[in-house]
Design brief:
This protein is of the alpha/beta class and about 350 residues long. The chain is built from 14 helices and 12 strands. Its EC number is 2.5.1.57.
Length: about 350
């Protein structure tokens, strides 16, 4: 069984525990605190387990030239990339307010720490787990420092190779047993042919002692549902209140109706996965009673006759007789009573075949 651990207080992941669903608000709040709160409430109302943001300390994530470069995209909130990012970045006090609001609403709250100083702040904020975005997955000094803090971790794997992910696993595992890895392709929006869901099963083989999950940027919900069917124990999807809003992430995000449908579909799939044990279920008994077949006499069989296959056939019969899968066990046994043509061959009618004989 995959490792099970407590990702958030009272909420286990892995094994047979329900898939943990992260609503990635990211920076789709447009830099507006009230909008961010509405999105937290929306995530809760739709059934997600966690509302997640992205926290950066911009001077630690970007160098000066990156912040000063002109940013003329239709999605821009400023003349430079730095102005754009500052518009979307909440202060420490605003994060505390959002965390408090999430607690009031009743949903877990965390953020991706997009640089080491952001991780330090989130650690002080006492988030339940750290999310490592794909851009930092191969940032091994960052990974080590984050893992050493001892909080559970969810690590995305966009833009990485399997060789790098093996290093990631070894690096985190050395300091922290409680983490999971998400299959992810970093494209927005993501085309189906680039999703590569089979990596989930490869991760399950490579890292059998940790839960594996999926972070998706595709349109719609079907691929994420398929990831759960493949065994994803954590899923993350970007969410928005309106896909037409300014911002490059909105097009790859789920609106409230889609998020609610995703949660519902995931919970349905989890119920459908079952135990893996194959046996006749109680719900199948009415169908078996109506249409289940039995062994019947192909022609009249006199008492004392030794049974051969050419004396027997299989039909839906009343009363129920010997089950078809046992027909070969009847060969060579004598019948204890006369059996008419087309009549059921019951267990009690065959020598050494009744319930007492079987026992």
């Amino acid at each position: 069984m995959p490792l099970k651990f407590e990702l958030c207080p009272g909420r286990m992941i892995g094994g047979n525990h329900p898939c943990f669903i992260i609503a990635e608000i990211g920076q789709n709040h447009q830099g507006d605190l009230d909008t961010a709160k509405k999105m937290i409430r929306m995530a809760k109302d739709c059934g997600a387990d966690c509302a997640k943001f992205q926290k950066s300390e911009l001077e630690h994530k970007f160098n000066r030239r990156a912040l000063e470069r002109p940013y003329t995209s239709k999605h821009s909130w400023g003349k430079t990339y730095g102005e754009h990012k500052r518009h979307l970045e909440f202060s420490h006090e605003q994060y505390k307010e959002l965390q408090k609001y999430a607690a009031e609403v009743g949903i877990f709250f965390t953020a991706s720490g997009m640089d080491e100083m952001a991780v330090e702040f989130l650690h002080e904020l006492d988030v339940p787990f750290f999310k490592v975005g794909s851009g930092d997955t191969n940032n091994f000094p960052y990974l080590e420092k984050t893992a050493q803090k001892g909080r559970p971790m969810v690590v995305s794997s966009g833009m990485q190779s399997m060789e790098t992910m093996r290093r990631v696993y070894q690096t985190v595992k050395k300091h922290n047993q409680n983490f999971c890895i998400l299959q992810c392709t970093s494209a927005y929006p993501l085309e189906a042919e680039d999703v590569n869901l089979r990596v989930i099963t490869e991760y399950q083989k490579e890292f059998p002692d940790i839960p594996i999950g999926y972070s998706g940027h595709e349109s719609g919900i079907s691929i994420t549902v398929a990831a759960v069917a493949l065994g994803a124990k954590v899923v993350e999807r970007h969410v928005t209140l309106d896909k037409s809003w300014k911002g490059s992430d909105h097009a790859a995000s789920l609106e409230p109706g889609e998020l609610a449908e995703l949660v519902k579909a995931i919970r349905t799939v989890e119920r459908a996965l079952g135990s893996g044990v194959k046996h006749m279920l109680p719900c199948e008994v009415p169908c078996h009673d109506k249409l289940g077949k039995s062994v019947v006499a192909k022609s009249a069989i006199s008492k004392g006759t030794e049974l051969t296959l050419d004396l027997l056939t299989v039909k839906v019969a009343e009363p129920k007789g010997v089950a078809p899968e046992d027909i070969f066990q009847l060969v060579g046994k004598k019948v204890l009573v006369d059996i008419g043509e087309d009549e059921s061959v019951t267990e009690d009618a065959v020598e050494s075949y009744g319930k007492k004989a079987k026992v």
